[in-house]
Amino acid sequence: MKRNVSLAEISDGRLYKASDMVKADCGGCNGCSRCCHGMGNSIILDPYDVYRMTTGMGKSMQELLAASVELNVVDGVILPNLKMQGTKEACAYLDEEGRCSIHPYRPGICRLFPLGRYYENGGFSYFLQTGECAKENRSKIKVSKWIDTPDLTRNQQFTLQWHDLLHAMEERLTGEDEGKQQEENLLLLRLFYLLPYKGTTDFYSQFTERMEYWNEQIR
Ligand code: SF4
Ligand code: SF4
Q1: Domain of life, per the record (predicted)?
Q2: Which atom of ligand 2 approaches the CA of 114 most closely?
Q3: Fewer CB within 10 Å: C terminus or N terminus of the chain?
Q4: Domain residue spans in the chain?
């Protein structure tokens, strides 16, 4: 999700690489669950999140959509996000003790927080959002350790590919008629989200196959 604010307004003014140290470590959150409440539709799921959640939890995307995930339009594209529910607007995966019940399978945005991604010149860096995490005096931690995602280099390549696909789709669909917008959005949802991922096969090879099919269909 794009934000129309300057980096200086929302960050400490620095850009970080995966190997840099950053003051992001909130020490296990220690009783706080602020960023699991009231997040609106901002915890958007990418295909790797869906692979991780469906294969890890043994649930289909359809089951997630029936319980904890909803669809919203983001920059002209229909994408799934974690649903906030109840009077406290809490994520469905927050347990009674205020802990994440799907910690090993939690989405990438939850892993990043309070970091964000800043895209420029065909790549991206990380930045530290200020005024978002409730914990003061966070410790320094290596960005890659904080994100806690295996094979981060490959994951970063996937993240860029996915970002570029969504950006191109948004540009292509601007000004298009409703039928064309619906057709492309349905293909995106079916191909990258609803078609089940195999837990026994590496995610990135499955994603590459689906990208090839997507590129054949979208010309
Ligand atoms: S998935 Fe876990 S970490 Fe992410 S918002 Fe929900 S409860 Fe919080
Ligand atoms: S606001 Fe900060 S300390 Fe609180 S749950 Fe989120 S990351 Fe943890």
Answers
A1: Bacteria
A2: 7
A3: C
A4: 12-217
